[in-house]
Specification:
seven-stranded mixed beta sheet, homodimer, three-stranded antiparallel beta sheet, alpha/beta, 16 strands
Chain lengths: 343, 343
């Protein structure tokens, strides 16, 4: 099944990623508030998945709307959109999906009922497009991988971070489907451990060899030439940088120091080429994520904590970006940025 | 009190570092086997502390020996030495202390009882010298720190890693004692979390401001110019590299990329200048350290793991080494290496 699905009874089904891999708990989301809560608490996460989730959240609002006319529906959607925009500030796909749905709603010719139906269809289309984009990213990216490669990846840019298949892990999957022998080194990705909990889980399920390392071991495995390429996902790609899960930047610096290619795999819904990294808010999450692992407290009472959820990787550390349209090198991205700015 | 102490009833007292900061459990070690077990399981850790601990382990063997003559005592000491050498292969202070005690025992003129008494005194001397070395390291290193500096440190190179005061944290303490305002950023240091559990605990107790970060956040805090200097300890300093807790190497690479000075603070008992990094065994520890945090399993069953306990930082990333004799730059170390090789 997909990571997120619309059911015709007007609910959205997804899996609680906080409980993986020990427990597979499905979440039945009925309202935009349900979705917003799941996003904030990271029961669902992954920039492309959050795009689809936000679209479905507006679909839930529209589908269950009791607004008498289109104007009332639009007001409800605007309130819902505002709630969604306040969940997590850094990843751009959520904002992109919200704006796309709202834009369609504003310009659509039809009454409230017809508009609601259109929004549900548009949300499904966003999800379908993400699934298709991941397959295309996989196809393009697989051409970069050689038989026998070991790929280091960070966090989870897999099926669980998207509607299905995955971005960084989609590239690995596509290469494996082509018959290449690929193995993966997954960083555990503190503080939320998405690499340990989700990436190893996905890869093991698919029978792709994976080794788990602590985040402290990245330099060592590169120094020992145990890694051929790095592939990560992205939460937002701006003119000058890739913004992704905290820890990405240091892996990129290390890859450059060891002459290891550093690839970013992301759909175009992750691109935000009218902005620069200085304009992006880096989400700072609560200290308890760093201070606790599960129920285990790892530091004394009263210790101050930093907990930025993302970091900024300047493009000079990025070998190429793999999107559904192909492989983009720095010069391609500059030209895309110029085009985006003119719009 | 000191981290490790000899009691005249022939026991050694130390603290179980696995239980800090939540619980202060004192360990009463009565035999060399007790000490070896505490070292293997990391109840005690930190290269300089393990030097003192190994010396005291031989002192326990000698003190409680029932050997009839010196030859019998020597045989007991050799068996004990072999047990100690098999505990942890990477840090050199343990080997250094064992060899120093054995060397003294071989050349000492006296009967079994007198030799045993000499060994106890020599072990105490090793501990006293470590305490004095740490104070001297602090004095020398403090001259490198400026009022207002924020120091990033990794793992725990504090009082708990030594007999008292600490190496890297000794430098911080000495600067604070000089009236400089210093704050610290401590990495949590997965997998064993010595930074989260021990460094924050020591610094909080001393009233030195400390912020805890996940190991993924090092690049970010450097990118944001939140760090002025890095100071770490060492488990072994060879001709071409510093060998220290896993994660040190990547911090050194990041420091260089951000033009942040990277200092190593270690007593001369950590120096092993007749060897190169290629000749050192990097201890690979069990997978459960990565797979579990406390009782919490963080990855699915059957996932493979890498768990090197140390990494290798080539000297080109090291700004200087602070030892009890002063501040050594790369050229000083080369000249020391040449002298060591000639011996």
């Amino acid at each position: 099944m997909r990571t997120i699905e619309w059911r015709e009874d007007g609910t959205v089904i997804t899996v609680n990623q906080l409980k993986l891999p020990n427990e597979t708990e499905f979440l039945e989301l009925r309202t935009c508030d349900d979705v917003a809560e799941a996003i904030k608490t990271m029961k669902i996460r992954g920039a492309p998945l959050l795009g689809a989730a936000a679209a479905y959240a507006l679909a839930l609002t529209a589908h269950h709307s009791k607004g008498k006319d289109k104007a009332a529906l639009i007001r409800e959607l605007e309130v819902a959109a505002e709630k969604l925009r306040k969940t997590r500030p850094t990843g751009v796909n959520l904002f992109w999906a919200v704006n796309r749905i709202l834009g369609k709603a504003y310009t659509f010719n039809g009454d409230a009922r017809e508009t609601a139906a259109m929004i549900v269809e548009e949300a499904k289309k966003i999800a379908d497009e993400d699934a298709a984009a991941n397959r295309a990213i996989g196809r393009h990216g697989a051409s970069l991988l050689e038989d026998g490669d070991t790929i280091l990846t960070h966090c989870n840019a897999g099926a669980l971070a998207t509607v299905e298949y995955g971005t960084a892990l989609g590239v690995v999957r596509a290469a494996v489907e082509q018959g290449k022998k690929i193995s993966v080194i997954a960083t555990e990705t503190r503080p939320k451990l998405q690499g340990a909990r989700l990436t190893t889980y996905e890869l093991k399920r698919d029978g792709i060899p994976v080794k788990l390392i602590s985040d402290t071991m990245v330099g060592y495995v590169m120094y020992k030439r145990m890694v051929n390429k790095v592939i990560v996902g992205a939460d937002r790609i701006v003119q000058d940088a890739v913004i992704n899960k905290i820890g990405t930047y240091q892996i990129a610096v290390l890859a450059k120091e060891h002459d290891i290619p550093f690839y970013v795999a992301a759909p175009k819904s992750t691109f935000d080429l009218t902005h620069t990294s200085a304009e992006v808010t880096i989400e700072e999450r609560g200290p308890e994520e760093v201070l606790y692992i599960g129920i285990e407290r790892i530091a004394p009472e009263g210790v101050a904590v930093l907990n930025p959820a993302f970091d900024i990787t300047p493009l000079k550390y990025v070998t190429a970006i793999i999107c559904e349209e192909g492989i983009l090198y720095r010069e391609d991205l500059s030209s895309l940025s110029r085009t985006a700015e003119k719009k």
